[in-house]
Amino acid sequence: MSVESYLLLLLVGVVLLLIYSIVTNDTQQRRHIRAVAMAVEKLNHQHYLFEQECRRKLEQLEIAQNDQIREADLHYELEVGMSELSKPLQHQMAVLQEEMHQMRTQWSARIVHLEEGVRSLALPASVSGIDDAHIIRLYKQGVDVEGIAKDLRLSKPEVEFVLKIHQMK
Fold first, then answer.
1. Cα–Cα–Cα angle for 85, 86, 92, nearest 5°?
2. Cα–Cα dist 71/109, whole Å
3. How many domains does the chain have?
4. 120 falls in which pLDDT band (50, 70, 90)?
5. Which candidate, 147, 155, 146, 168, places its Cα nearest to that of 127?
6. pLDDT tens digits, residue range 52-95?
7. What domain range is 144 assigned to?
């Protein structure tokens, strides 16, 4: 074989090697392109799902916000309504409190009057014929209970009783 045929064979071998190299590179690039395409497809799908979830959350937030606004309106209406309803009750309570105060005053006066009446009925005007005023006068002068009892010839409990009745002791 001649040099030309070797060269031709060599050239054919180089061309075949180049074709093989191009085909191999092309196959690898196709694999990479497919992998990138699949990754992009997954990202698009996740993006779509994320957008759907965001829309759903926004709708829920709008519904919740509308519910809160309605709830606030209801609270305001209830507050106004309760205020209007409670005004007559507050007035009635004030009237009742005033009546109770007047009744308390009247009852206190009656109780004092009754106590005075019972005191005058239950107690004798004097103990053993001696005027209570004499016992009180001696007590105010500083004479002790035993001294008053000896001077007036009374028992010590009788003198103490008179002083207690007149709230001196």
1. 115
2. 55
3. 2
4. low
5. 155
6. 998 999 999 888 888 888 888 888 888 888 888 888 888 888 88
7. 100-169
- Specify the residue for token string 């191009």: 22
Rounded CA gap, 135 and 166, in Å? 10
Asked if 81 and 132 sit in the same domain, the reply is no
The reply to whether 39 and 75 lie within a common domain is yes
Q: Map tokens 């001649």 to a residue.
A: 2
Residue 86 sits at the vertex; the CA angle it makes with 82 and 88, to the nearest 5 degrees, is 140
Beta carbons within 10 angstroms of residue 149's beta carbon: 18
CA distance 70 to 78: 12
Final residue of a domain: which of 32, 65, 91? 91
Residues 52, 104 within the same domain: no
Judged on CB neighbours under 10 Å (0-12, 13-18, 19+), 135 is buried
Distance separating alpha carbons of residues 142 and 34, to the nearest angstrom: 124
